[in-house]
Amino acid sequence: MLIFNMEQLQQVLPELDPLLRDQWDEMQTVEGLKFSPNYMLYIYLETINQALLMTARDEGKLVGFLGVLLKQHPHAQETLNAYEETFYLKPEYRKSGAGRKMIKFMLAALQSQRVHSFYIHENDTIPTGKLYKSMGFKPKFTIYVRTVGDL
What we know:
Blueprint: E1 2-6, H1 9-27, H2 39-47, E2 51-58, E3 61-73, E4 76-89, H3 98-112, E5 117-119, H4 129-134
Parallel strand pairs: 4-5
Antiparallel strand pairs: 1-2, 2-3, 3-4
């Protein structure tokens, strides 16, 4: 049975790093980027209440995570929004309802923080839009990516 918790990055980093590398290998879609997370930035953002990390554990072993960044809306400064930064669940735990439970857990945590909206994205390597739509999320933006170096 999976157990979900809010945890601090600094405390789970040794366990989290290998999963982040797995996620990078599976989902990296922009050519030429090298895996080199700025962990100190994320740790700092946690200290000023602008980042949250939710973990999923199976018998104590880290098997998934959902990280969000919190920020005021630039055009409505009284409104706090959450932006999914990273969401990963080991492949053997997918299609079991675990992803849905992770999102529900995070939504409850965001509600307690008085967050207005939660923005979550779908990576083109793992289709998750159907899950998000079934949970009440609505598509709002399409983002296109291009490397700039080869103009």
